Write the C-alpha cells for this entry.
Amino acid sequence: MKKLIVLLFLYCFQLPVAYCQLSYWQQKVNYTIDVTLNDANQTLDGTVTMQYYNNSPDTLHFIWINLWANAYKNDRTAYSDQLIENGRTDFYFSDDAKHGYINRLNFTVDGQLATIENDPKNQDVIKLILPHPIVPNSNTKIETPFHIKLPYDFSEDGYINHAYQITQWYPKPAVYDSKGWHPMPYLIDGSNYSEFGDYEVNITLPKEFVVASTGELQTADENDWLANRKDPVFQIKKKKVATHYTAHKITHRAIAPLPVEPAANKVVHARFKKISFKQDDVNDFVWFAYKKYIVQTDSALLPSGKNIRIYTYHIPTENDYWATSISVIKKNILQRSEWLGDYPYKSVSVIETPSAIATHTAYPNLIVVSKSNNENELARSIEQQIGESWNGGTVASNDQDHLWMRKGISNFYNERYHQTDSSLHPTCSSGTKRIHPDFDSLLLQTVIQEKRDQPIETASGEFSTANTYLIADIKAAEWMRKLEHDLGEPLFDSCMREYYRRWQFKHPYPEDLRKTIEDVSDKNVDSSFALLNKKGALKNEKPQNKFNLRLLPAIGYNNYDNVMIGAAITNGNLPHPKLQFILTPLYATGSKQLNGIGQIKYTMRPAVLFQKIEVGINGERFSTKESLDTAGKKVFENFYKVVPSIRFYFNHPVKSTIVSWLDIRRYFIGEKLFNSFEDITDSLGNDVTYPLSSNTYKRYLDQITFAVDNRRVLYPYDYQLQLQQGSDFYRLNITGNYFFNYIKGGGLNVRLFAAKFGYIGSKNYDSYLYQPKLAAGNGTDDYTYSDYFLGRTASYSNPDKPIANQGIATQQVLIQNTGGLKFRFDQYSFLQGQSQNWVAAANFNSTLPNFILPFKNPFRLFFDIGTYAEAWEPNPQTSRFLYTGGIQLSLFKNILNIYAPIIYSSDFNSVLKSDPNQNTFFKRISFSIDVQNIQLKKIVPVAYQTLVD
C-alpha cells in the first residue's frame, strides 16, 4: 500500500501540468424519459427513470430534487420575485390558466415507495427521503410518473401559439459535491447546474410538429420526413456564400438524410408519432416543437478531423437573414475549437424561438435565439450563445453562485472573436447598435464611479439588474483580458485549453480555474483572483475623465420670445466628470434678446452615508409678457433667476429600487414688470391699457426638500416633504403618489397633496403669490419659475391689453404645488380655493383597458377633490369640497396631459352657466406640460437606470 501511495505521488510530481484529481468526485445521473405532448391543453404526461450513481464518499439518506416546472406555479416563487425585481409584472398578474406546474409524482426507489418533503422556502424544490441509504460507489434506480401543465411563454419555457419550448420539465436531482447539496429554485440564470449523465428520451406528439432537441435523433422515419418535408409559407432565399477558414471550405446544402440507428419506435397512432433521442455527457435535456420550422443542415470538419453536424431551425420569413447562418455557426465553432479545444458534441442546433420575449440561451448542443432585425444582429446572437457551449454547457459551473464563470468567460471570447471578424458591428446586449464602440466599458466605469458596482464573485440573485450585465459580463471579461495580458496570450491560451480539457463535463469552482492556471503557467495568480471579490476598478487607478466639450443645437419657444435658437455647450460624458456644466444661450426672435438656461455642478462621492453630494448653481432668463407701448413698439416683461443648491443623495443597497435625497437651495429671482399704465380709447371706443414704464423687483425664496422615490415596478410610490420660506411667510408642502397596478396592465395613480401657509410677522399682500390653492395653477402661480409655460401670463381675465395675451396658452395649468383640480377660472378668483392657512386635495388618475383601441390606450379617467381652510369658516365663498372629473389624454410618456372635465362641483357649474363665453367644450379643456416627467429613468432601460440618478 505504501508503494502505491509513493507511485501516485511520483506520478503527480513528475507531471505538473496534469491535474491529479484524486480528491475530486462527481455524481452521475442517467435518464430514460418517455413523454407525450398534448397540444390541445398544453400539457405533458410522462415517466422518468433515473439511475443515480453515488460516487461520493458519503452515504446518502435523501436526495434534493429540483422541480423547476413549479417556478411558474404562482406569484410566490423565487422566479416570480426575480421578474418583479427586473421590472416585469406580466407573470405576476397573469391568469392561473397561463401558469405552469408539475404534479402526479409518485417516487419509487429500487421499487420501494419513497416519501417527499417540501422545501419551506421554495415551491420548486423537494427532498426525496430514501427508503434505504445509498452507500458510496453504488447506484440506485429512481422512478416517477409526472404531469406538467406548461406555462405560457414568459421566458424560456412554455408555449405560445402552439409553439413549444420544453426546457424546465422533468424532475432533476440537485448537484451534490464536496461542498454539500446545492438545491436551488429556478432563476433566470443557473438552470444549467445539474448532474451530468446519459439521456434517452422518447417523445410522442402530433406528427406535424418539427422537433429540435438536445441529442442525436434515433428515429429513421423522422429523419426521412424532415428530408422530404416542404418548407412552409416561404422558401428561404439562399445566398451564394464562399467563406473559408484555413483549408476548410464552408458550404451550404439542403437537409440530407443522416446516418442514424435503426428506429425502435415508429408511428404509434395515425395522428401521432414517437421519436427518440440519445445524448451522453450532458447536464440537461431540452426540446422545441413547432409546425412551421424551416430546417437547414450542413457539417463542419474540425482541424482534428472531427465532423460536426449543424442544424438551424427558423421561423418562415420573407427575408433571407438565415441564409448565411450556417457559415456563421461554422466560423464560430472552428475558431473556438482552436482557442479552447474541439467542440464536444457530434452536432449543434440553432433554434429561432417564436417567443415575443427576447431570449438568447445555450443548452447542451443546442442554442436558442430570438427573432432578429437584420443579418448582423442574427450573427451576433448566434456567436454569443455558441461560446457558452464551451463555458457554461460543457464546463458547467454553478451560475447562481458564480455567474461570471459562464457569462464573463464567454463574453471574453466573444469580444476576441469580434476582433477576428470585422463584419460584425459591436452591439449592446439588447441587440441594438452601440453609440460608441467602448460604450459598455464607459457604463461600467460610470457604475464604479457612482459606487453602485458589486464584486465579480457575486451570486446571480444578488446582482442588481444593471450589474448582472455590467459586472458578470463586461467586468468579468475585462478581468479575463487583464489575466491574458499578465500571462501573455500564448501562455494564457495554453492555460484555458488545459482548463477546458480537465473540466469538460464537470462542475469547476473558481479555485479550480486558478489551480489550472497556476499548474500550467507555474505562476502565482492569487492577486488576480483576489480582484474577483473586490469592488471598484481592476487597476489601482481612477476612471479617466477626458475633457470633452460638446456643442449641440438647441431650440426653444414661448409666446413672447417666440422661436429661440442657440446651442447647448456641455462637458457631459461617461463616466461623469466631477465638475459638469451645461450652458444653453438662446437668441429670441420675438423679443430680440439673449435668453437661456445654464447649470454648473460639482459632485463629491463620500464613502459613507451619502452616495453622492452635488453642489451647484443654475439659472435662466426668459420673457413673461408682451405688450405694445403708446408708440406701438413691443415691450416685454421678463425674469431671471439664480439658484445655488446642495443635494445629498442617501446611500441605499445596490439592489434597492429606492432613491432618496435632501435638497437645500435658495432662489434669487428678479422680475421686470410693467409698473405704470395709461388708458387710451381706441377707434372703436374701447379703453385699452398701455404700459408706460417698468421696474425690476427682486425677491428670494429658501427651500428645503426631502424626497423618496421607490421605482419598483409593482406599486411604485414617491413622496416629498418641502419647506419654503420668504421674507415674511413660510409654506409647508406635502406631496405623495402611489400607483396601484391593474392585473391587465396599467393602473390607478393616487396623488395626495397638502400645504400649510403662515405669515412671519404681519400679513403682507405681496405674499399672496405664495398662498396654496386647490385649483391647478397658471403661469403666475409658478413662483419659482420651475415649470415650462407657453404663455406664462396668458389669461382670460386680461382682454383690455393692446396684445390680447390669450389663446390656447390660457388653458395650460400647473399641477405641481397645487391641489391639481383641472379647471382654469382666472377671472373668478373666489373659485380658486386659495387659502391663507391650509389646503388638502386628492387626485385620482386611472388608465383604461388596452383592448378598447388597437394600440396602447393613451386615454385615462381623472377625478380631483379637495378642501381648504376658509371653506370651513362661516359664510364661505364655495362649498366645503370642490371637485372635477373627466377624461385625460396622456402623450409623450405623460409629459403632455390634456384634460376634458365632464363632472364638476356645483360652484363651477353655476359660474359656467352665467358665462356663456367660458362655457364651451373647448374652453373647458385644459392641459399641462409636466417637465418633471422628462426623466431619463423613464427612457433608458431598467438595467441602466442606476446610472442616471
